[in-house]
Automatic annotation (TrEMBL):
InterPro entries: THDP-binding, Transketo_C/PFOR_II, Transketolase-like_Pyr-bd, Transketolase_C. PANTHER family: PYRUVATE DEHYDROGENASE E1 COMPONENT BETA SUBUNIT, PYRUVATE DEHYDROGENASE E1 COMPONENT SUBUNIT BETA. One of its GO terms (molecular function) is oxidoreductase activity. Keywords: Oxidoreductase, Thiamine pyrophosphate. This is Alpha-ketoacid dehydrogenase subunit beta. Gene3D superfamilies: 3.40.50.920, 3.40.50.970.
Amino acid sequence: MAVQKLPIAKAINESLRTALENDPKVLIMGEDVGKLGGVFRVTDGLQKDFGEDRVIDTPLAESGIVGTAIGLALRGYRPVVEIQFDGFVFPAYDQIVTQLAKMHARALGKIKMPVVIRIPYGGGIGAVEHHSESPETLFAHVAGLKVVSPSNSADAYWMMQQAIQSDDPVIFFEPKRRYWDKGEVDKEAIPGPLHKAVVAREGTDLTLAAYGPMVKVCLEAAAAAEEEGKSLEVVDLRSMSPVDFDSVQTSVEKTRRLVVVHEAPVFLGTGAEIAARITERCFYHLEAPVLRVGGYHAPYPPARLEEEYLPGLDRVLDAVDRSLAY
């Protein structure tokens, strides 16, 4: 059956399974990815079916995990690394930034680095400290890394396939609070380019641009705005590095307004770069300044306060109203 309705977590599991079946050089490694199947069960059943040499439980040492993956890539493997939670990636940041991202350029193109680093990210699950971060901009800033995030099951399946097939390192951010959202996955579809943004909902009055967990919020905002006679277009960016500015520009030239939404702090976030680029490109089309909605420039709060921290429907609609008021 080519088309299935799967949660995002299961879609990633199916994609990893397909990759393991199709290429003996694909390996999965990380903390608890094997016997436990990962804390979110994304790798459930893979070690049982492919063995401990293909799906490898590692020590609790993120720097060592990524360093090992770099060595494996040098020997022709395609390792897929899981960082158990977003806030755990920082011990590996040096390996990612100074080694993984630079190796291709350092070798004048002779060395490829087909490494995928999976990172469940974002809040909304009531977790403790260091389990709800959104560090995507830290990696998008680093030349040599591709940075992507799916918002639905179909993209989760196909973008993972494309990430594993890439000869460049890919940081694959998985929106953990959307893991259980279901959507249709067509395993015989022909996917679009990995870094191509898509219009998730057509509209005429204003463009909402988002990625990962915030796409659903923007779609809900567009549905709520429609009841008040406002037509909002939702662009799912899908990729934070590179960013498909052309698709955003096309939408903004039609709607003449843009609000960028992400969970990460607004200060120096992905939205800042998009706002600057679109202002340059669409200066004579814009009827309002590009607005940004995101988290606050503060440490992620305790779980009881995270709903106050995370951008939700009301904050998105407030930005929409401010933009339309110009």
